[in-house]
Amino acid sequence: MNSPIIGFAGMTHLGLVSALSAAEKGFSLVCYDTNAALIDSLCQCKLPVLEPRLDELVLRNKSRLRFTADITVLNLCDVVYVSPDVATDEFGQSDLSTIDLLLDSVFTATCNETVVVVLSQVPPGFTRAKQREGRFLFYQVETLIFGRAVERALYPERYIIGCADPSKNIPISFKIFLEADGCPILLMRFESAELAKISINMCLVASITTANTMAELCESIGADWSEIVPALRLDKRIGKYSYLSPGLGIAGGNLERDLATVCNFADEHGTDAGVVRAWLANSRHRRDWPLRVLHREILNKQPDAVIAVWGLAYKENTNSIKNSPSVALLNAMPESHFRVFDPVVKIEISSNTNYTATESALDACNEVDVLVIMTPWEQFSKISPREVIGRMRGKLILDPYKILDQVSIHDLGIKYITLGV
């Protein structure tokens, strides 16, 4: 068989990154979305999401990419991924209405020989319930990471594929596409694959919660978490790639969705999810670390203090503010005045928050009493701490992620507070 034509339905973050990465591997792509304005922007190489290297992928592979709002064009494809981002609410509950409608439309628009693959994250039981007589339907686990999505899509560690019957061979067109990466292909029943994605994120949350719990203990007993981490990374039972950097809880929506799914299933089937609910409680506790420190260090004595905030995105290299600790901090302090800068996010925080958006990180520091660095953007690490202090009227910096230059910080006569120390 010739190289298969691959389609993606849904041009939000997941579908767009996956499609452009497939084009980079030499495949011809049909990229469909119901939003005609979005398709027009994509045809002009204007991307709606921020990811390192994504702009260069679309420019380099224009000849392989066909963006369209005409769903019938998907009939040209051998394999079609259904890939809209699945929205979640503040409790981590998924809204499956978009993927429900899109999957039905894809089945209608394509022929019986077309392989349809659900790439969006869905709860166990979803894909099997969507099977149609005489059609090829699979579920594929996605493991993209905001800010590193292109890297993860171009160099997958393995493919996890959910099937109606994993003992049967998968269609040749789908096989050719998957084997192009030379990584292991794990076939399993639908429910196992859907739960595998959740299991991966559960392990990540366990690492995150351990790091946050122990880093907070370090802050109270005089230990330094950064000195402990190398010992853990050298333990083969834990490993060098573990999530061991302390942070401000879990955010972004994807991990929270999986924890909510486990709690929902546990309640439905009478299994225990106490540890999961403890993880969620720990996440909320760590998210509010800056709020507690600000009250302890300055607001109890100086309630009218002006606060500079660097970063609104929930993490670096993304424009997503889903469950952002920074936004939570601003909304929790409607009486305080903030000067705020983020290199990519420009939003209204809330109608009752007193804040000024600034043109640069240094402008945010003008005449403020305290600086709080909420997103570890790399560009912040290149700013001279001496210049920062020169702009401030106070001498307090909260830098949870140790983004500022650690050598020069100690010579400035300021109070510098970070996680895990």
Short description:
The protein has helices spanning 13-24, 36-43, 54-60, 97-109, 126-129, 149-154, 172-179, 190-221, 225-233, 254-269, 274-287, 289-299, 325-332, 361-364, 378-381, 385-391, 406-409, and strands spanning 6-9, 29-32, 65-68, 79-82, 115-118, 136-140, 159-163, 185-189, 306-310, 337-341, 354-357, 370-373, 396-398, 415-417. The protein has 421 residues and is of the alpha/beta class. It has an eight-stranded mixed β-sheet, sandwiched between helices.
Task: Provide structural commentary.
With 421 residues, this protein is of the alpha/beta class. The chain is built from 17 helices and 14 strands. The chain folds into 3 domains: 6-189, NAD(P)-binding Rossmann-like Domain (Rossmann fold, 3-Layer(aba) Sandwich), CATH 3.40.50; 198-285, N-(1-d-carboxylethyl)-l-norvaline Dehydrogenase, domain 2, CATH 1.10.1040.10; 288-417, NAD(P)-binding Rossmann-like Domain (Rossmann fold, 3-Layer(aba) Sandwich). Helix content is 40%, strand content 14%. An 8-stranded mixed sheet has the order 3-2-1-4-5-6-7-8, sandwiched between helices. A 6-stranded parallel sheet has the order 11-10-9-12-13-14. Helix 1 (13-24) packs across helix 3 and helix 8 (190-221) crosses helix 10. The model has no long low-confidence stretch (mean pLDDT 91).
